[in-house]
Amino acid sequence: MDIQTNLRNVLAELPEGVRLVAVSKFHPAEAIEEAYRAGQRIFGESKEQELSEKYNVLPKDIEWHFIGHLQTNKVKYIAPYITLIEAVDSYKLLTEINKQAGKHNRTIPCLLEIHVAQEESKYGFTPDDCREMLEAGEWKELHNIRIAGVMGMATNTDDEAQIEREFRTLKALFDEWKQAFFADEPAFKEISMGMSHDYRIAIRAGSTLVRVGSKIFGERNYVK
Ligand SMILES: *Cc1c(COP(=O)(O)O)cnc(C)c1O
């Protein structure tokens, strides 16, 4: 099936309040244009250079979400235009985003990536580390970033009960932190969870942003 049909099929499944990030990594600008022509505006990329190349040639009303691991030395390249940095996994990265955003007089929305899967991963705050960071409160002095919610990935498994447990863990952390630290912050509202194989489960568990790639654009060819 073609990209536009795939896109419409996914969109048709999303309830009100859930937005789609079309994950276009490893797919060419032409594929993004096709989704764009069907009305899609939010796209997700995970590598700075690939994103910057696409940003340069594609329409400027696209909202780019950075969904991968972001190295601090790459922040400066995306700071002028990025709409949402989804996978902030250290306080150090948050301070660097704040610094680079300031240079462009911007406030960049960020999500805190939380490690809720059973799988080993180098990335993401543990829930305890993130809670500690939020309690410490220094982030409140970072006026050029805005913490807009949380992001996470479930274990890559066929066990749907496990996936759902992990997504519900992320939702519970969001609720806890919303009440404890962001009760007066309407901007803290996003729970980014769900990919091609598990977005339906994520929606049941309270997702507000699903990040769907291969189901729309087809399999990625990593050998280039
Ligand atoms: C690649 C990627 C996705 C999309 O994965 P699909 O299985 O192709 O839908 C979602 N989130 C993150 C963080 C990714 O790196």
Automatic annotation (TrEMBL):
One of its GO terms (molecular function) is pyridoxal phosphate binding. Keywords: Pyridoxal phosphate. Gene3D superfamilies: Alanine racemase. Residues 3-220 form the Alanine racemase N-terminal domain. Its cofactor is pyridoxal 5'-phosphate. It comes from the Bacteria. InterPro entries: Ala_racemase_N, PLP-binding_barrel, PyrdxlP_homeostasis. The modification N6-(pyridoxal phosphate)lysine is found at residue 25. The keyword DNA damage does not apply. It holds the Pfam family Ala_racemase_N. Belongs to the pyridoxal phosphate-binding protein YggS/PROSC family. NCBIfam families: YggS family pyridoxal phosphate-dependent enzyme (TIGR00044). Pyridoxal 5'-phosphate (PLP)-binding protein, which is involved in PLP homeostasis. PANTHER family: PROLINE SYNTHETASE CO-TRANSCRIBED BACTERIAL HOMOLOG PROTEIN, PYRIDOXAL PHOSPHATE HOMEOSTASIS PROTEIN. This is Pyridoxal phosphate homeostasis protein. It comes from Phocaeicola salanitronis (strain DSM 18170 / JCM 13657 / CCUG 60908 / BL78). The lineage of its organism: Bacteria, Pseudomonadati, Bacteroidota, Bacteroidia, Bacteroidales.
